[in-house]
Specification:
This protein is α+β, with helices and mostly antiparallel strands and about 140 residues long. It contains 4 helices and 4 strands; from the N terminus they run H-H-E-E-E-H-E-H. The chain binds coenzyme A.
Length: about 140
């Protein structure tokens, strides 16, 4: 992924349920590039439009678990699904994890996304547990 892709990524983020402006996404992209161990990969149409992307991050080691990779986002444009694009993006993310010697990939997925769960299970992922995510705004 590079800067020129971010306008298309804005519309994909919206489809995923995380609406942001292109400017906000650009600011995060620049920060991520500087500070994190991450993989960001796009799928493009023949015309050069971004029709899917995946972000995978290296999760820092904790006392309870060794290092692992975390799929932060995977989305394919609604008009392009069912063509193998999601599978290709996931393969690319897995390749990134292998290259970075991360032995486990974790995906947190909203309980509502039953189609996506089928897709992941089909690709060898198992539902390990279901959790609540608690947040508190301190700003
Ligand atoms: C989940 C998602 C990334 C999968 O991408 P995709 O490009 O549609 O998936 P693929 O075409 O690679 O594979 C989908 C599988 O479902 C089947 N499928 C058939 N028609 C399909 C359709 N209309 N939509 C989705 N999958 C379909 C495919 O045959 C394939 O099965 P197979 O691996 O046994 O051949 C995509 O559906 C998506 O963006 N969903 C909304 C966002 C989302 O939920 N993301 C996950 C967040 S955790």
């Amino acid at each position: 992924m590079d800067l020129a892709d971010l306008e298309d990524v804005t519309s994909l983020a919206d489809q995923l349920g995380y609406p942001s402006s292109t400017e906000e996404i650009r600011t995060r992209f620049m920060r991520i590039q500087r500070t994190q161990n991450y993989g960001l990969f796009v799928a493009k149409s023949n015309g050069g439009k971004v029709i899917g992307y995946v972000q995978i991050n290296c999760e820092p080691e904790t006392l309870l678990a060794g290092p692992r990779a975390d799929v932060a986002a995977l989305i394919v444009d609604a008009n392009e699904r069912g063509k193998g694009i999601g599978a290709a993006l996931l393969r690319q993310a897995e390749h990134w994890a292998e290259q970075n010697k991360l032995p486990l990939i974790r995906i947190r997925s909203n309980i509502k996304r039953t189609d996506a769960h089928r897709f992941y299970q089909n690709k060898g992922y198992v539902i390990n547990k279901s959790s609540h995510i608690l947040t508190k705004s301190i700003a």
